[in-house]
Amino acid sequence: MQVRIYRPAKTAMQSGKGNTKAWVLEYEPAARKDADPLMGWLGSDDTTQQVRIKFDSQEEAVAYAKRKGLDFQVFAEAVKKPVGGKNYSDNFRFDKLEFGRF
Q: Where does it localize (predicted)?
């Protein structure tokens, strides 16, 4: 079975870095999802799509995948560029230059 190992990124809906410290091992979908004829919900017979295993380090996740004989692919975490040292209060400075006013 194919699995992917990655470190989840921070979601846009949170300001902190809550669930971004652990490495996650997820199974690739083996079957497509079909719509239920009665309710219209999407579902699949593949239950491995529900499995997410968290590890403290990338090495632990890779060792687990090797021990279980899984084909794995490791996705490197994205490098974040630091945003400049600008504060919100800089927008209201009295000494900043304004274009259009002379």
A: Membrane
